[in-house]
Amino acid sequence: MVIKVRAATEFDDVAALVGPKKPTSNVCFCLSYRIGSKENKALRGPARADRVRELCEHDPPPGVIAYLDGEPVGWAALHPRRDTSFARNRLIPHVDDLDVWSLWCFRVRPGHRRQGVQHHLIAGAVSYARERGAPAIEGYPVDNRGEQVDLTMAYVGTKSLFEGAGFAQAAETGSVLNGFPRVLMRLPLSERS
């Protein structure tokens, strides 16, 4: 199995992975941390899709996609923290003033789970952020200590997933998801970090 990870510049591929099932919906498309709360709540149906299409044309795009034989099988949201709601989040602390990138959401298509796609997504996100000059990359996974995480809440990843990719815990957070505390995991990408 050869999985390639590329920047999320193809709207149709993003929609296949994180688009809502109901066209009039005002959820998903992985916008809740990417845009302001007011705009996120207001966007519905075609307007929501149009906003994501626009983000796919931005530099940098809204994340990375894992492809298996040309088919999109996994998504990871990735962006400079300064342009996300993590820049203002009271529960997720800032470790320092570095212009870090945030990696906050994973989605693997049914039929492709438990095949290491998340590991490829993290590696691809790290490579992409490094290529773009990010001094460090952060994630905000749950510290589930090996316990089962509800599939709908597993989108943030687990501490062990990030540790396996070389990240280290940099801080506790005030956030809890599915009964588990979230931790701030960080990986330095340059000498400056």
Any idea what the radius of gyration is?
A: 16 Å
The rounded distance between the terminal residues' Cα atoms is 34 Å
Oligomer type: single chain
Sketch the major β-sheet: 7 strands, mixed
Task: Provide an overview of this structure.
- With 193 residues, the chain is an alpha+beta fold.
- The protein has helices at residues 11-18, 37-42, 45-57, 117-131, 159-164, and strands spanning 3-7, 63-68, 71-80, 101-108, 136-139, 168-177, 180-188.
- The protein has a seven-stranded mixed beta sheet with strand order 1-2-3-4-5-7-6, with helices on both faces.
- The termini are far apart.
- The model has no long low-confidence stretch (mean pLDDT 91).
List keywords for this structure.
single chain, 193 residues, alpha+beta, 7-stranded mixed sheet, 7 strands, 27% strand, globular
Quick description:
The protein is α+β, with helices and mostly antiparallel strands and 193 residues long. The chain has helices spanning 11-18, 37-42, 45-57, 117-131, 159-164, and strands spanning 3-7, 63-68, 71-80, 101-108, 136-139, 168-177, 180-188. It is globular and about 40 Å long.
Question: How is this fold's topology laid out?
Answer:
Elements: E1 3-7, H1 11-18, H2 37-42, H3 45-57, E2 63-68, E3 71-80, E4 101-108, H4 117-131, E5 136-139, H5 159-164, E6 168-177, E7 180-188
